[in-house]
């Protein structure tokens, strides 16, 4: 898998219909494209993974596997890329989907939570106040957890409204201070095999 990732990350194009004979967990990580625009951008772009039918299905299945049999009432995705995986997970679970938004986009009554994102910028996240009732079990989904600030804000919003965080799922949860806190406090799922985790932590 490591060799496959290295080879495919260097490839400018990939056949989006190709499916490997043996689909190990995380095989679809090789579909992600590396940053070619500099330090103001994320180091990897997973959108090519989402374009691949089997890759997307296997990614969502791997994210949901640890929660098989767990009571989940709703899936919430974090603005903006978490909407893709979150909606796909909700559809697979046959549950409703809630969008947790960056401030300023919702025209209804909202609850707001300030946070610092992975780039160090101060932001505000909000959710509509009528979507989460006390005791509702919510699976939180985002594309990536780097410093953990964004996910922690989403957790705080759910819990402030009386909801229960049933779990946290992301393509990658990095081994940062915030990532470790989330793993220690909540049931988590991500797609990076242990052997590749150090490389993902170093953004290699």
UniProtKB/TrEMBL annotation:
Residue ranges of domain Phosphoribosyltransferase in the record: 70-190
GO cellular component: cytoplasm
Metabolic or biological pathway, per its Swiss-Prot or TrEMBL entry: Purine metabolism; AMP biosynthesis via salvage pathway; AMP from adenine: step 1/1
Major enzyme class: transferase
Pfam families: Pribosyltran (PF00156)
Keyword list, A-Z: Cytoplasm, Glycosyltransferase, Purine salvage, Transferase
Main localization (coarse): cytoplasm
GO terms (BP aspect): purine ribonucleoside salvage
Known catalytic reactions: AMP + diphosphate = 5-phospho-alpha-D-ribose 1-diphosphate + adenine
Enzyme Commission (EC) number: 2.4.2.7
Keyword ATP-binding attached: no
Compartments, record wording: Cytoplasm
GO terms, molecular function: adenine phosphoribosyltransferase activity
Highest taxon above the source species: Eukaryota
Keyword Ion transport in annotation: no
SUPFAM superfamilies attached to this UniProt entry: PRTase-like (SSF53271)
Subunit structure: Homodimer.
Entry-linked PANTHER family: ADENINE PHOSPHORIBOSYLTRANSFERASE, PHOSPHORIBOSYLTRANSFERASE DOMAIN-CONTAINING PROTEIN
Family label: Belongs to the purine/pyrimidine phosphoribosyltransferase family.
The protein's name: adenine phosphoribosyltransferase
Organism whose genome encodes this protein: Balaeniceps rex (Shoebill)
Gene: Apt1
